[in-house]
User: What shape does this take?
Amino acid sequence: MRTANRWCCGLAGMAMIALMSVGSASSPAQQNTPAVAIDPDDIGGLVTSAAGPEAGVWVIAETSAFQTRFSKIVVTDDRGRYVIPDLPAADYTLWVRGYGLADSAKVPAKPGTRVNLTALVAPNAAVAAKVYPAISWYAMMHLPSESELANIPGGMNRYLAIMKNAGCAGCHQLGNEYTRTIPKDLGTFSSSQDAWSRRIQSGQAGTNMIGQAGVQLRGLPLKYLAD
Assistant: This one.
């Protein structure tokens, strides 16, 4: 089960997923866990790892067979079982995502079948961290000290307003992969702070970003974005 302790293990470097298709040899956990009941328009199965059933991980079925891309997501129960119900007739790809896990390879699946998935412990914390939601990354950003804010009118309130609801977050989902990385096309830099100084000059809103982060907040956000 993806408890807080297992989460920490994932951060320490534990998680990757391999898949076991229908008809492969089953593990003891799979043999001892009652199979879920499925209808002809469901896909069901079991997600396990070397530690046993994996509770609370996402299983995703998706297809491009329709006019718009279609996907359905469910969460495994406390025995690691899942059912993706009421799927329109189509060929699907099936994969798993979870905290402490890397995204799995995608495998074919059809409604009315069972597909068992096997989660494996992983190579490093960076791989596990790729699936963290944007807010988890943004929450890692430290706040400036009161002394750093002394020359900024409005102090912490103004800083938070610009870095949250009244500024950056009005255009971006801060913390997603695009906003937490520096595009290679921008060049190479002697420091992360220099890279961020260049980054916020880019695009249609470059003038606004420089005005808020560089002028109103005296460049202070660059230090913490770089950190």
User: Anything to note?
Assistant: The chain has two domains: 4-129, 134-226. Confidence is low (pLDDT under 50) at residues 1-25.
